[in-house]
Design brief:
alpha+beta, binds calcium ion
Length: 269
C-alpha cells in the first residue's frame, strides 16, 4: 500500500507581521494553502480551507481521491462563503490550495492558485502545477520569457483562487503516477519567489523530509524571507496502512481562524 512519510514547516518569514499560510501533512493527505485578502482575513481563508479539506478526506478515507478532493474543495468554498456572510470585513478573502490525496493505490493532486507541487524522481525535479497567474498566462502564450517573470510588475496577480464564490472556474485535478522512492514537495510562493528551481532540486534531495523541509525554508529566509514560507515534503513509501493523524502547520493551528460551519448554521458566526 502506498502512503506518504512526510514533514513540513510553515514560517512567518522576516517581513510579514503574521502567517497567512496553512498546511497539513499526513500519511494520506497533504495540503498547502496561502491566504489572501485585506482586513486580516487571509489567515481565515487558508485555515478554513485546510481544515475543511483535511476533515473531508480524513472522515471518508478509502473513497476515490478525486471525489474527496472535489468535495473537500466545495466544503472549503462553502465555509469561506459563510465566513464572509458572518463578517463582511472578510469580503474578498480567498486562498490558494494545493493538495494531494492517496488512497493506498493512487495519488491525485488538486490545485488552484500560485502555490506549487513538484516531483523529485531520480534526483530530477519536475514541476507538477501551473501557476494560475497573469504572468504564467503570458509565458504559456510565448509572450514573456520565464526569466522575466520575477521583474514583471503584475507578477503577483493571481487569476484563480479558492473563494466563497459559488460560480467558479474550478480546480485542476491531476492523477499522479507516483511510486516508492519518489519525493513530493508542496509549497507556497514564499519559497518559489525567492529560491530558484535548481536550488530547490538540490535542497529537496537532502536526507529525510524533515531536514529537506528545514533547509528549503532556511534558503527562503536567507534570500530575504519577504513572504510567509510553507514547505511540505513527502516521501512516497510502500508499506502497511497506518492509522493516520498528521500535523497542522501555520494559521490553521489557531482555532479562531477556522470558520465553524456548525456555528454558522445556527446563525452564531
Ligand atoms: Ca504567499
Amino acid at each position: 500500500m502506498l502512503r506518504f512519510s512526510g514533514a513540513g514547516v510553515s514560517d512567518v518569514g522576516l517581513v510579514r507581521p503574521q502567517n497567512e499560510d496553512s498546511a497539513f501533512v499526513g500519511p494520506y493527505v497533504a495540503v498547502v494553502a496561502d491566504g489572501v485578502g485585506g482586513a486580516a482575513a487571509g489567515e481565515v481563508a487558508s485555515a478554513t480551507a485546510t481544515y475543511a479539506l483535511t476533515a473531508t478526506v480524513l472522515g471518508r478515507m478509502g473513497e476515490e481521491p478525486e471525489a474527496l478532493l472535489l468535495d473537500g474543495m466545495e466544503a472549503a468554498r462553502t465555509s469561506i462563503r459563510r465566513g464572509v456572510q458572518g463578517d463582511l470585513n472578510r469580503l474578498g478573502m480567498a486562498t490558494t490550495v494545493t493538495a494531494i490525496v492517496c488512497d493506498g493505490h493512487r495519488a491525485v493532486l488538486a490545485h488552484v492558485g500560485d502555490s506549487r507541487a513538484y516531483l523529485l524522481r531520480d534526483e530530477a525535479l519536475t514541476r507538477l502545477t501551473n501557476d494560475h497567474t497573469y504572468v504564467q498566462g503570458l509565458v504559456s502564450a510565448g509572450q514573456l520569457r520565464p526569466e522575466e517573470v520575477g521583474r514583471h510588475p503584475w507578477r503577483n496577480v493571481v487569476l484563480r483562487s479558492l473563494d466563497g464564490d459559488p460560480v467558479h472556474e474550478g480546480v485542476d485535478l491531476l492523477p499522479l503516477p507516483v511510486r516508492p522512492g519518489d519525493r513530493l514537495l508542496l509549497c507556497s510562493d514564499g519559497l518559489t519567489d525567492l529560491v530558484p528551481d535548481p536550488m530547490i532540486e538540490e535542497l529537496l534531495g537532502v536526507a529525510d523530509p524533515h531536514s529537506a523541509a528545514a533547509v528549503l525554508t532556511q534558503a527562503a529566509l536567507a534570500a530575504g524571507g519577504r513572504d510567509n514560507v510553507t514547505v511540505v515534503v513527502l516521501d512516497v513509501v510502500d508499506g502497511p496502512m497506518v492509522v493516520g493523524d498528521g500535523q497542522l502547520l501555520g494559521a490553521v493551528r489557531e482555532i479562531a481562524n477556522i470558520v465553524d460551519p456548525g456555528a454558522v448554521r445556527l446563525g452564531r458566526c
